[in-house]
């Protein structure tokens, strides 16, 4: 039986058209795909139904309510299709694919995010290859998770990061191997793929209010600056530190500000500023001081995945104590234990 794919068009570069203010989201994606994929070409591709959201967005405008819309849409159509594709802007695609991995768990079919660096309306667009590749990936029975496919690379959705604004190789997976590669043939690393442990679980809770902030260390950062940041009305913070998770252990006032925040119930997770690497807070004294201040090591989780994981756990009503434990637990393949 021919497989059928559900395609969600949320906006993003792939469907943009030029305006006086620059490229902007544009509708009628179905007509654009029909133009690029004439009937004799479509015959060799899986069938698909495309839904175009009424409010198309540049992904720089993504908000938690958009994540809830996408996850709910997939959950409601889950039994009717063999796989799913989300056409999404590249700027925050790694955030959205990460969030879907927490909201849609134990899947037994693929959910594939893709988009383009150049709009489909342009002659040199990479959008068609990405879309056709994603269609092939979305029919593969071996894939049972949320993925991100771009320029031939198949990556776990919560391991991918946007690494380049100018190359077609826009995404990479710095702390985890690619799941596969599409060249003449599609080659998958079966041993890396998630295997469903139970029936699919749809965790659709997603607070509309942002629950997480990001604090980046920099040379000369002061306790007053840190304290002002931690006083923002969010419940959890990602602190992006140096190297393997180090911070200025010579500034006792700064450490006291962190300790006060964690004692007051704020969740602070330590992630490295390095593109590739993992946090080991005990490797250096500068990291151990952060641990003593109540900061939790986030291991090799990406910033995008940790942001979404914290938002997800808070949306589900977990307590700070529970979340501090769950930060180090592998929920959807987002970290290496």
UniProtKB/TrEMBL annotation:
GO MF, one example: asparaginase activity
Tagged with keyword Hydrolase: yes
Asparaginase/glutaminase C-terminal domain location: 211-325
Keyword Transmembrane included in the entry's annotation: no
Gene3D superfamilies noted in UniProt: 3.40.50.40, L-asparaginase, N-terminal domain
One Gene Ontology term from the biological process aspect of the record: aspartate family amino acid metabolic process
Catalytic residues (UniProt): 13, 90
Regions annotated as coiled coil: none
CDD domains given in the database record: L-asparaginase_I
Database matches in SMART domains: Asparaginase
InterPro entries in alphabetical order: AsnA_fam, Asp/glu_Ase-like_sf, Asparaginase/glutaminase-like, Asparaginase/glutaminase_AS1, Asparaginase/glutaminase_AS2, Asparaginase_C, L-asparaginase_C, L-asparaginase_I
Transmembrane segments: none
EC top class, as a word: hydrolase
Stored SUPFAM superfamilies: Glutaminase/Asparaginase
Keyword annotations from UniProtKB, A to Z: Hydrolase
Superkingdom assignment: Bacteria
E.C. code: 3.5.1.1
Residue span(s) of domain L-asparaginase N-terminal: 4-188
Family recorded in the similarity comment: Belongs to the asparaginase 1 family.
Xref: PANTHER family: 60 KDA LYSOPHOSPHOLIPASE (PTHR11707:SF28), L-ASPARAGINASE (PTHR11707)
Protein's UniProt name: asparaginase
UniProt source species: Endozoicomonas numazuensis
């Amino acid at each position: 039986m021919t497989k059928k794919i559900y395609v969600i068009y949320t906006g993003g570069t792939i469907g943009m058209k030029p305006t006086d203010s620059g490229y902007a989201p544009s509708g009628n994606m179905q007509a654009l795909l029909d133009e690029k994929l004439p009937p004799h070409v479509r015959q060799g591709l899986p069938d698909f139904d495309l839904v175009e959201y009424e409010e198309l967005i540049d992904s720089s405008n993504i908000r938690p309510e958009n994540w809830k819309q996408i996850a709910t849409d997939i959950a409601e159509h889950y039994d009717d299709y063999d796989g799913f594709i989300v056409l999404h802007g590249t700027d925050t695609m790694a955030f959205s694919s990460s969030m879907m991995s927490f909201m849609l768990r134990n899947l037994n079919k693929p959910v594939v995010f893709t988009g383009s660096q150049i709009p489909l309306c342009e002659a040199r667009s990479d959008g068609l290859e990405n879309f056709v590749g994603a269609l092939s990936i979305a029919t593969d029975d071996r894939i049972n998770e949320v993925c991100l496919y771009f320029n031939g690379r198949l990556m776990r959705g919560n391991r991918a990061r946007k690494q380049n604004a100018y190359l077609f190789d826009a995404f990479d997976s710095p702390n985890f191997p690619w799941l596969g590669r599409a060249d003449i043939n599609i080659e998958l690393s079966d041993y890396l793929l998630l295997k469903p442990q139970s029936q699919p679980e749809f965790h659709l809770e997603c607070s509309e209010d942002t629950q997480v902030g990001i604090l980046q260390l920099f040379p000369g950062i002061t306790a007053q600056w840190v304290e002002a940041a931690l006083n923002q009305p969010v419940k959890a913070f990602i602190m992006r530190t140096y190297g393997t998770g180090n911070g200025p252990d010579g500034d006792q006032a700064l450490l006291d500000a962190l300790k006060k925040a964690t004692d007051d119930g704020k969740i602070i997770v330590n992630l490295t500023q390095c593109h590739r690497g993992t946090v080991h807070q005990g490797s250096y004294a500068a990291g151990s001081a952060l641990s003593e201040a109540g900061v939790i090591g986030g291991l090799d989780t990406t910033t995008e995945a940790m942001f979404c994981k914290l938002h997800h756990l808070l949306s589900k009503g977990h307590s700070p104590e529970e979340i501090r434990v769950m930060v180090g637990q592998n929920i959807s393949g987002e970290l290496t234990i």
